[in-house]
């Protein structure tokens, strides 16, 4: 009996730290040149963000080596706004660029840049207006957004006019910028007056693209071949806003949620933050809370293979990137 008690105590001592530190962080890397208030993203070995004034972009390699930090300039326009950014596996950078020309006409296209920040061309998408973009491992660029009636105007990122009654919200473009296919009919995602791409998120990995609508709770996991692998609806809660959806290379899904009100209070008392991390079971459609333990201040930005990449210790001088294998969750 005494031996059993001692063995149990020893096991408790050994397991104690593991229970306190649920997520095992395998690597940290400082990033000192991204200090905007916007939450950065991680994709294909790079961390990046829209700048503070939303008229340019900051791109840095995962090693912490800056790539570029510059305003986005397009020909024959006097005002450019950047809504989202994506970085490809082969070193291309895409940005959703809303623009106003000298005659007051507005448009929204996808600007393509190289790794020095030089313009390499544009992908015209109008009257499809993108809200979120991302690259998959085959070099495809995926865009989530809405299609508006031809002739309607854009003012910055504001859509002035009527959306097209029937259209798909997800588009795929190949590495040459050619349209491949569209998926996910708008009305199957949400019949609400507000478009489901509003305040939604898109995430990519080598083999998958995933989307999640805050408005309807609809989520979908799509392969690079355009196959809808899984889809479903999460419970919509007015005190929880989904910040991003992150697929791994194998198709595991993770979601971060910003909590408000009583949900935030309860979570903050236990974990010290109002940002929660969930695993989305793609077979059952249920959210499973991930306990970050001593790493509760981490915020997931994207995936790297079967690792999640987090932002840690944000300050005026930058932050740390942190890698955690999903097998340790």
Write a concise synopsis of the structure shown:
With 329 residues, the protein is mainly β. It is 10% helix and 49% strand.
Identify the notable features of this structure and list them briefly.
329 residues, four-stranded antiparallel beta sheet, mainly beta
Question: Can you give a write-up of this model?
Answer:
- The protein is mainly beta and 329 residues long.
- It is 10% helix and 49% strand.
- It is built from three helices and 26 strands.
- The strands form seven sheets. It has a four-stranded antiparallel sheet, with no helix packed on it.
- A hairpin with a 5-residue loop joins strand 3 (46-50) and strand 4 (56-61).
- Mean pLDDT is 88; it is low at 1-21.
List the helices and strands and how they pair.
Elements: H1 2-20, E1 27-31, E2 41-43, E3 46-50, E4 56-61, E5 66-71, E6 77-87, E7 93-101, E8 106-113, E9 119-123, E10 128-135, E11 141-147, E12 153-155, E13 158-160, E14 168-173, E15 179-185, H2 186-189, E16 201-204, E17 208-212, E18 218-223, E19 228-233, E20 240-247, E21 253-259, H3 261-271, E22 275-280, E23 287-290, E24 299-304, E25 307-315, E26 318-325
Antiparallel strand pairs: 1-26, 2-3, 3-4, 4-5, 6-7, 7-8, 8-9, 10-11, 11-14, 12-13, 14-15, 16-17, 17-18, 18-19, 20-21, 21-22, 22-23, 24-25, 25-26
